[in-house]
Amino acid sequence: MLDLSYEAPKPKVIAGAKSDWELVIGMEVHAQVATRAKLFSGASTKFGAEPNSNVAFVDAGMPGMLPVINEACVAQAVRTGLGLKAEINLFSAFDRKNYFYPDLPQGYQISQLYHPIVGEGEVLVELGDGTARIVRIERIHLEQDAGKSIHDMDPALSFVDLNRTGVALMEIVSRPDIRGPEEAAAYVSKLRQIMLYLGTCDGNMQNGNLRADVNVSVCAPGAYEKFRETGDFSHLGTRCEIKNMNSLRFIQQAIEYEARRQIAIIENGGTVDQETRLYDPDKGETRSMRSKEEAHDYRYFPDPDLLPLEIEQAWVDDIRANLPELPDAKKARFIGDFGLSDYDASVLTADVTASAFFEEVAATAKDGKLAANWVINELFGRLKKDERDISDSPVSPVQLAGIIAQIKAGDISGKIAKDLFEIVYTEGGDPAQIVEARGMKQVTDSGAIEAAVDEIIAANPAQVEKAKQNPKLAGWFVGQVMKATGGKANPAAVNQLVSQKLGL
Helices H, strands E: what count in the chain? Predict the structure, then answer.
């Protein structure tokens, strides 16, 4: 564990008509492996291609076609497992999960049921209010994605696109450790962040590259603690699985609805059926999809076309040695090295590109706190307003560091710095040259500032008397001097001289 201390969040409590209930949530996150080719074929994984153009014979289930494992997919799964502090299994094996669906031309999905490639791990999920929970990872296994059925192109016909068929997925299965909708969203967000740092999944939920199946159940207060003590699932309620969630907001809404649905059934004397459900965002409700299948319903058996997967410890160690710095470690370092607040460090490490941008600014400006302030408040704020990404920032790290250097040198005030930022953002250029060319340097000549102060005081005797009665009104004189000097006077010098002249 990192040297960061947190309190565990309290579980979400929902008041029913008869009693209080607590949520218990487990998740299966399907993350598309970031590789150029599929799990068992050389077909492209590029998104947005013409329908059925990225399909090899083996993907289409053609007779006699044999799968060949893509080593890059295995490496990415190992890398993800190491990033989640998980056990890497040197021996794993593939199984066939048999079911019929038009977008599954083989009639089965190649997956890993009995011997997954990654074992138990953990994720630190922070809630942003000083609380955090360790969510245990049960396993990560590799499997094929299915194709896509399209029903809205013709009123009478359905079409099938096999481009996604055979694309490698990592299914990341959590323990039922999540206790509320916000936690569930934060958990998916944290997984996404880690995989983006690792480069193992692009995290694009809109394209379906990251999807979540959410298992929801409710229990009486205290029952979950008994489950954790004993491992006995009978202490928990019957779970329902909400399939294929691809939005953090919808995940929260679906959990909230599903929990209240189950509570209503139980309190009315009914029994919750274990089933698979879908969330309808338009209606804001879940609906039954099918009864929940067990493993034996899929007739799992070892895939006869694939040998067990055996990897070497030295290969795993090499991958481990080349892992990038992960979000939790980076956040701890930012707090320790730059003296940043927990909040600022969290914001700056949320995105791997943003964190690299900040580090370059801090290193060039040699001031982490000032760099953080300008990156978060000015740059991020302006980019958000313009709906631009950090990778598309018109201001480079060197330019932003140049603005900070002007502030630290005393050449410009904070107000002028904001004007300078606007010029650099919209027009570009070197901050130091802009300050010089446009006469933006602040007045540091004490004589010139004093003359301006004397002039304002002499012209406003009534205000002088008021300020002597109420020293807070001295700020009015400071404002007038700054206005008279076009904002170029050194604010600290102005404050000092005004107080001195007024005898405050």
Answer: 17, 16
